[in-house]
Structure to design on (112 residues):
């Protein structure tokens, strides 16, 4: 059964950093694209980043380019999202998703 579990969210100050993790079970990272999207109250869902399982190609939304880095650890079957230079507008629930399935999300709040 495909399952994705996010962790690592929390409260960060503007300019701070957080690293989100997405632990995957039920399939191997090496075959599929896995992505992160976020949902803030009153805003549309926004795709943040994704990584290809086959060759590691990455893509980023313009709003996070240069600040966020997606990576994967095939041995741990886990995908990470390193978020630096956080801004208040990054506040949202962050979800990882693959094959039409998403996790329950992890809350990220950026505030002083």
């Amino acid at each position: 059964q495909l399952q994705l579990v996010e962790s690592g969210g929390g409260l960060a100050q503007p300019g701070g950093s957080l690293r989100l993790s997405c632990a995957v079970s039920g399939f191997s990272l090496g075959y599929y694209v896995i992505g992160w999207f976020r949902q803030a109250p009153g805003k549309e869902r926004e795709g943040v980043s994704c990584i290809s399982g086959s060759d590691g190609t990455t893509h980023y939304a313009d709003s996070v380019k240069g600040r966020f880095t997606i990576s994967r650890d095939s041995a741990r079957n886990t995908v990470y999202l390193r978020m630096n230079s956080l801004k208040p507008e990054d506040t949202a629930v962050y979800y990882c998703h693959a094959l039409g399935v998403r996790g329950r999300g992890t809350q990220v709040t950026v505030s002083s």
Observations:
- The longest strand covers residues 18-25.
- The CA atoms of residues 12 and 110 lie 5 Å apart.
- The mean pLDDT is 95.
